[in-house]
Prior knowledge:
Elements: E1 2-5, E2 30-34, H1 35-40, H2 42-51, H3 53-57, E3 65-69, H4 72-78, H5 84-94, H6 113-129, E4 138-140, H7 145-154, H8 156-159, E5 163-167, H9 169-173, H10 182-195, E6 200-204, H11 209-217, E7 222-225, H12 227-233, E8 236-239, E9 243-246, H13 260-266, H14 272-283, H15 286-313, H16 317-324, H17 331-341
Parallel strand pairs: 1-7, 2-3, 4-5, 5-6, 6-7
Antiparallel strand pairs: 8-9
Helix pairs in contact: 2-5, 10-17, 11-15, 11-17, 12-15, 14-15
Amino acid sequence: MLIVPGISLKSLNPRFWDNQSEYYLPQAKALMVSYADFHASRTARKRAMDNGIHEFLGVPRGRVQVFLDNGAFKALSKEWHVRESDYTKFVEEAKPDWYPIPKDYIPAPSMSTQKQRGFYQRTMKMNEAYRHDGYVPILHVGRYLENYLESIKQNPQLGQKKEFGLGGLVPNLLRSPNAPAHDEIIESIMNVRKKLAGKRIHVFGIGGVSTLHVAALLQLDSMDSSGWRNRAIRGIIQLPGTGDRQVAKLGNWNVREVSKREIEELRSCTCPSCTRYGLNGLKKNKTEGFNNRAIHNLYILFEEVALIQRHLEKNSYETWYQKHLTNSIYKPLVDKILATKNQEPSKIRANSKIRA
Length: 356
């Protein structure tokens, strides 16, 4: 599983991709930035187009990939509009390593069937219009996921694409109103993996400790999230196999504080911030505290992936996760995935390669 951390142009810190930074993480092989950020800043957009997006961000080409998000989620929530030609010109000149179609229309489970159908049709129209030049087609989890697969099968050029993006998973997993049962979601994603065999599938926005297990067991190839930063802003850190804990009072968030046992575990954490600044560094406010918490969170994601990979390779995952994974929302989902897979002739095997 390739983790693609989302970054913000408002502040590029902590610069986990920069080997001159105290927060450098050599495990990082990719990052994602939203076109929405460039659309909001003419200066940034011009510089990235003039110099290339790698040079603009200070990302070493060849060692770290730059993924570009099309900003569709923000466009939907902010009701802003971007011309396709502006996006395609940016892609052509800034040269990101990975870029989806200019627009997609993300359904919510609560939407009417008619509206979801319209979003499916508009997204497929965009997929078909940009079936060339490296644009990554997008599918959405929901009532029309099977329709996406059938449409792709019927279009020879789309069927030859090597990569696909899968959106809309988070609201369905979190059981938003009218979301299907978890068993149904699991079966539909397993069907996507089966019908897109040999293709790389990137899933948008599920980058938490526990959701890594879900993505890995469903054999998804990469995932992005800005959650590691968003949690840090709120004074929240992630812990292995557990989830979120409050370490700094930066708002009234419904998150448990770290326990005495967890504090002791943090003392042995080997992330760059804990190694240098310890627990007090995580508790600080302002920029220093944010950087420390953010890099701790990202480090934990990389460590979790490594643990999952190790236990898959040793065929010990099914016993290990029972003690390791304590998240009350996603552990039952992992149970369901394993139960579903164990009904099939082939069980989870280590050849489902996860890349950190």
